[in-house]
Amino acid sequence: MRNHGTMTEVIRIGSLLIATPALTDPNFDRTVVFLLDNNDNGALGVVINRPTPVPVANVLPPWSGLVTAPDMMFQGGPVGLDRALGLAAAPGSSQPLGWRRVIRGIGLVDLDAPPEVLAGDLGGLRIFAGYAGWSPGQLDDEVREGAWYVVDSEIGDIFSSEPEQLWRSVLRRQQGSLSLLATYPEDPSMN
User: Fold this and answer.
1) What's the domain range around 44?
2) pTM of the entire structure?
3) Alpha-carbon distance 183 to 145, whole Å?
4) pLDDT category, 185, cuts 50, 70, 90?
5) Confidence of residue 3 (pLDDT cuts 50, 70, 90)
6) Quick one: which of 44, 48, 1, 41 has its CA closest to 148?
7) Domain count, the chain
8) What pLDDT score was predicted for residue 189?
9) What is the CATH number of the domain that holds 15?
């Protein structure tokens, strides 16, 4: 569910889940999650604002020349850290071989495909170790309990050159009181 005060609707694929200050799970502290799937089997997304210190070249060398800076692996979530997911922008209306549309011009990349097949068709690429997953109904419950704000995404969010600032910048562009949370201190007790 999307919850901005009294408004409630279905959480759409391609939305951003912004961790609220009330979310105490350290895996999701100040995270921004891009929602890849949400259906009767549960929900799946990737954290888009946690680059790791590991270069893509150390893990998937053939893809390293195509990733958007910073050219590091991102921690996509606490689940399946031994798996890699690639998210890429493919401008235009065509669907390149080895790319599956999620929403608008954003899709998942088949990282087993030869990178040269996609090289000319990608407008941005990020590679994530792991993902965030929710069982059926779990994400809806967490949103109702105040753990997540659900907002619209922009293509630039996924490929931000300053991913560590994404939590604040996404909140800052929201309407009303939600934008004020961008100034929420890291440690409220120090305020």
Assistant:
1) 2-190
2) 0.90
3) 22
4) low
5) very low
6) 1
7) 1
8) 54
9) 3.40.1740.10
Is 9 a residue whose pLDDT tops 60? no
Angle at the Cα of 47 from the Cα atoms of 25 and 12, rounded to 5 degrees:
100
d(CA 51, CA 161): 11
Distance CA 22, CA 28 (A): 11
The token pair at 158 is 């996924």
* One-letter amino acid for residue 156 of the chain: G
* Cα distances (angstroms) measured from residue 142 to each of 19, 97, 146, 177: 10, 36, 6, 20
pLDDT at residue 184 tops 80: no
